[in-house]
């Protein structure tokens, strides 16, 4: 009897961040490059690199070979031991990380790596509190979820609310949380965080996504991150850069902080480090922090830390980014993609703003361009109200394009290898699908 993979999946496994009733996940049978195929043979262009992680494109052969070779060579050894692949990845990371970041803790997700970063900050400083921002996502374990500012935290409360995690305003020049206008604002959102540090008096670290990810691809003005780094340093507070989504060429640099010549005290990354073909997260620290633990207890660890099967594909992926010159390509092709999206927006009154950097873009959908009123809010999402963005993404799927929709915006983040023909296909599909939102303006 032929099995129904979609039905089996929905009945016996959990769909993440959703009500389970009505979930009917698409049965995917293969993926290659910028596309994947369902069980009927229909092809889909992956316009969001799945969860903004398949940066090299699907099924990169060099990365797949590295996993296979490592499985035959040394599939597992505990984190108390040294092995070639652990040393080799450390050397490869030193070549691409911001200068001064040179000691690494290898986890199995960005969530775990962020959790580790916050613990290291508290151990190093002897202080307790972590300052995060609203409109942020840092993971799904207890500490990282507490640091998360978006609607996903709500359902986990009170567990998701911890007294040692505070939230301040994000940088969002389209919808400023302080009601100000750039550049007259003088990046008051950064000053606000400094004000919080001064009045809380027990802040170990500030954790930020240098470019906010799924919550809107919010690109800060050029002076924001350098100013925030300086304000933190003046106060003896560590800066943690969550580059889980923005690392590995996504923004047109190895890491987003490189755009503003900022070296954080701790940098966290995951996703694109292995092209998402193996689960690896990295918590990377400065040498100053590393030296502290020579004579202070390092209270972090788990069984799968520095797992060889996760490290080998990272080495191969870094080599592929270099071989294919994808960091530069993300800048040049990203500029072209941004220009195409702005041309598209001019035709569609439902697009309030196009914003992005490198190969990371968002289309903000609005009911009214003048007032910037969104079609939907996070409260609508949680209350299971129909979302306009979901209707748009459903039309895109019908047209053979997968694109992540998030409350009231689309996340455009294709594999860095995307070619002109695929971009043409994406723009044509978006042109059709946005008519659904236009009709509700």
CATH architecture of the largest domain: 3-Layer(aba) Sandwich
- Note the gap between the termini: 49 Å
Radius of gyration: 21 Å
Main sheet makeup: 7 strands, mixed
Q: Mean pLDDT, rounded to whole units? A: 97
Number of strands: 16
CATH fold topology of the largest domain? Aspartate Aminotransferase, domain 2
Shape: globular
Order of helices and strands: HEEEHHHEHEHEHEHEEEHHHEEEHHEEEH
* Unreliable parts: none
Please name the fourth-level CATH homologous superfamily of the largest domain.
Answer: Type I PLP-dependent aspartate aminotransferase-like (Major domain)
Q: What structural class results from the helix and strand content?
A: alpha/beta
* Total domain count: 2
Percent helix range: 25-40%
Which range does the strand content fall in?
15-25%
Overall CATH class of the largest domain: Alpha Beta
The strand order across the widest sheet is 4-10-9-8-7-5-6
What keyword list fits this structure?
441 residues, alpha/beta, Aspartate Aminotransferase, domain 1, Aspartate Aminotransferase, domain 2, seven-stranded mixed sheet, 14 helices, 16 strands
């Amino acid at each position: 009897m032929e099995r129904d993979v979609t039905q089996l999946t929905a009945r016996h496994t959990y769909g993440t961040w959703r009500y389970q009733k009505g979930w009917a996940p698409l049965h995917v049978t293969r993926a290659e490059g910028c596309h994947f195929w369902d069980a009927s043979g229909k092809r889909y262009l992956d316009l969001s690199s799945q969860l903004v992680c398949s940066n090299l494109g699907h099924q990169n052969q060099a990365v797949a070979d590295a996993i296979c070779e490592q499985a035959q060579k040394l599939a597992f050894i505990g984190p108390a031991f040294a092995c070639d692949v652990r040393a080799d990845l450390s050397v490869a990371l030193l070549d691409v990380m911001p200068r001064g970041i040179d000691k690494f803790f290898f986890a199995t997700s960005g969530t775990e790596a962020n959790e580790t970063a916050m613990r290291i900050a508290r151990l190093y400083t002897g202080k307790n509190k972590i300052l995060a921002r609203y409109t942020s996502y840092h993971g799904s374990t207890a500490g990282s979820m507490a640091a998360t500012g978006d609607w996903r935290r709500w359902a986990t409360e009170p567990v998701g609310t911890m007294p040692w995690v505070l939230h301040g305003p994000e940088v969002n020049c389209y919808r400023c949380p302080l009601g100000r206008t750039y550049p007259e604002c003088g990046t008051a959102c950064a000053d606000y965080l400094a004000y919080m540090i001064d009045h809380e008096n027990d802040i170990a670290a500030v954790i930020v996504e240098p470019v906010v990810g799924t919550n809107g691809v919010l690109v800060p003005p050029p002076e924001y991150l350098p100013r925030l780094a300086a304000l933190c340093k003046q106060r003896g507070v560590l800066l943690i850069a969550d580059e889980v989504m923005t690392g590995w060429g996504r923004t047109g640099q190895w890491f987003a902080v490189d755009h503003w010549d900022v070296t954080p005290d701790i940098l966290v990354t995951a996703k694109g480090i292995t092209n998402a073909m193996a689960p690896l997260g990295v918590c990377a620290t400065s040498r100053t922090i590393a030296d502290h633990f020579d004579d202070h207890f390092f209270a972090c660890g788990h069984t799968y830390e520095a797992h060889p099967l996760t490290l080998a594909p990272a080495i191969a992926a870094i080599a592929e980014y270099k071989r294919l010159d994808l960091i530069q390509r993300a800048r040049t092709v990203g500029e072209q993609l941004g220009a195409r999206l702005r041309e598209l927006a001019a035709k569609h009154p439902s697009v309030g703003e196009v914003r992005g950097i490198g190969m990371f873009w968002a289309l903000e959908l609005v009911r009214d361009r003048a007032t910037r009123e969104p079609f939907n809010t996070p409260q609508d999402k949680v209350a299971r109200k129909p979302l306009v963005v979901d209707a748009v993404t459903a039309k895109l799927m019908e047209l053979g394009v997968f694109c992540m929709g998030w409350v009231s915006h689309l996340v455009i983040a294709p594999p860095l290898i995307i070619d002109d023909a695929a971009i043409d296909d994406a723009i044509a599909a978006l042109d059709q699908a946005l008519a659904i939102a236009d009709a509700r303006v």
